[in-house]
Amino acid sequence: MPAVSFQNVSKIYPSSRGDLHALKAVSFDIQSGEFFGLLGPNGAGKTTLISILAGLASATGGRVLVKGHDVQTDYQAARRALGVVPQELVFDPFFNVREALRFQSGYFGIRHNDAWIDELLAGLGLTDKASANMRQLSGGMKRRVLVAQALVHKPPVIVLDEPTAGVDVELRQTLWHFISQLNKQGSTVLLTTHYLEEAEALCNRIAMLNRGEVVALDRTSELLRRAASNVLRFKTDDTLPDDLAAMARVTGRVVQLPANDAQAVERILASVREAGVHVDDIEIRKADLEDVFIEVIEGSNSAHRAQEGISPPGRPKAETAPMGGNEDTSMPSVGANSP
Ligand SMILES: Nc1ncnc2c1ncn2[C@@H]1O[C@H](COP(=O)(O)OP(=O)(O)O)[C@@H](O)[C@H]1O
Ligand SMILES: [Mg+2]
Predict the structure, then answer these.
(1) What distance in angstroms lies between residue 12's CA and the mean position of ligand 1's atoms?
(2) What distance in angstroms lies between residue 43's CA and the mean position of ligand 1's atoms?
(3) Rounded average pLDDT over 126-143
(4) H or E stretch including 334?
């Protein structure tokens, strides 16, 4: 039995400007013991999916099972199997840290939980904050308490929605050390994050969500294998020629281009030279999950534009697809719907 099963989950938010289809028949399973990543740009529907999983929002269609329990019809059992760390910082300002954790234990009917609470406090670097009032804590510390709160009832499935957004490096490390340990001991983890290097390091499988649809789902190693294997990176203040601009990932002065072999590198540099573009700090690196993510999301956006009859900015898709073929970038929902 999967730890979590999303079956044709759809969510429509009605609005005066027309219905918003936040989720469109999302289907995938997470097996027990997985460290599963759910990635996607802002507004993709990640939090909506997690809210439905946690029973905080109801799906318009489809169903979600946690350890075989339907989150609607068998809410208590499903909720008990889940530890959810929400994206928003919500807390009770009148409690201190230990009280908040005891209160949360009480919510699950657990009376004498201090041994586990102490372990949680230690594991999350909160021991010396146990009697601090929630109000006095920094954002990062509150985030740790939210994680501890999600875990008071030792749930077999741990769900973290952007737990490291705006959080310092030390907390990220503490958190990942702790969550990885729980995962090694058998907990299933579902993580959404903007930090793709985190997902790459931690998750054995990854689903990418865009506009409410699963557009890729595979083992992390497979997703990485699909990407252009090398990336040429340089810095410039000049405007790139069109052919390069169409496939480049530009962050400030830094330009990155897929370049699988020496010929591709030569082509790019020749094009740069012809355009009279001045470049600095040239280097070649291996493609990472962010490259894959950009390819998949761009591919699904241009497929969407084609479907809606919107003409794409820049050049047609076949030329922009960095993998050299667009069949692969539009593949995903096929794989996504099979178990
Ligand atoms: N309560 C709501 N009412 C109306 N629209 C919402 C609500 N919550 C989310 N949305 C919309 O649904 C889409 C998905 O949002 P969300 O699930 O928060 O995405 P993500 O977590 O991937 O950034 C967005 O377009 C968002 O504006
Ligand atoms: Mg979100």
Answers:
(1) 10
(2) 5
(3) 91
(4) helix 333-337
**194: CA distance to ligand 2 center in Å?**
10
Residues of the chain with CATH 3.40.50.300: 4-224
Q: Tokens for 234, please give them.
A: 């340089």
- Encoding tokens for residue 17? 């400007």
Identify the pLDDT of residue 309. Answer: 77
Around ligand 1, the residues with Cβ closer than 6 Å are 13, 20, 22, 40, 42-48
DSSP letter (8 states) at residue 129: G
228-287: CATH topology is Alpha-Beta Plaits (3.30.70)
Mutate to test the pocket of ligand 1, among 47, 193, 293 (most ligand atoms within 8 A of CB): 47
Give this prediction's pTM.
0.82
Q: Are 228 and 240 in contact (CB under 8 A)?
A: no
Q: How many CA atoms lie within 13 A of 127 on its CB side?
A: 7
Give the per-residue pLDDT at 27. 98
- Whole-number Å distance between alpha carbons of 294 and 287: 11
* Rounded distance between C-alpha atoms, residue 97 and residue 198, angstroms: 27
What is the CATH superfamily name and number for domain 4-224? Answer: P-loop containing nucleotide triphosphate hydrolases (3.40.50.300)
Count CB neighbours of 226 within 10 A. Answer: 18
Cα separation values, 134 from 108, 125, 128, 258, 312, Å? 21, 15, 13, 47, 49
What would the mean pLDDT of 164-169 be, rounded to a whole number?
80
